[in-house]
Amino acid sequence: MKNLLLRAYSFRISLLLVGVLFGCQRADDTPPPQPLMPREKLVSVLADLHMLEAQVENARLSPDSARALYLQQQKGIFWRREVTDSLFQQSYRYYASHGKDLDDIYGIVLDTLAMRQTKLAPK
């Protein structure tokens, strides 16, 4: 589980860098897409996707098999959360263009993953 949090931190840093690049645009210039996924739903989907990524990585499959498994399981996550791939992508792009929003979202994602870790830790 330490690896999961470490990966989440490194992923967050890379996303922040992407956010900085998008931050060069004026955030006011980008209207929110319709429909826009609510932050709470995006947090739960991102937490599930990071857990999935850790599980697939720990499965030690070949890169092609790992990618196929990840994409298959990702579809399942989207289906359970009632989210389409395009809704997720456009919502994520919108929040990424607003660096502060994405930073807040990933702060909550990290808290969610840490809470899941404490629930899974042996007592």
UniProtKB/TrEMBL annotation:
InterPro entries: DUF4296. Keywords: Signal. It comes from the Bacteria. Residues 33-117 form the DUF4296 domain. It comes from Hymenobacter tibetensis. This is DUF4296 domain-containing protein. Residues 1-27 form the signal peptide. It holds the Pfam family DUF4296.
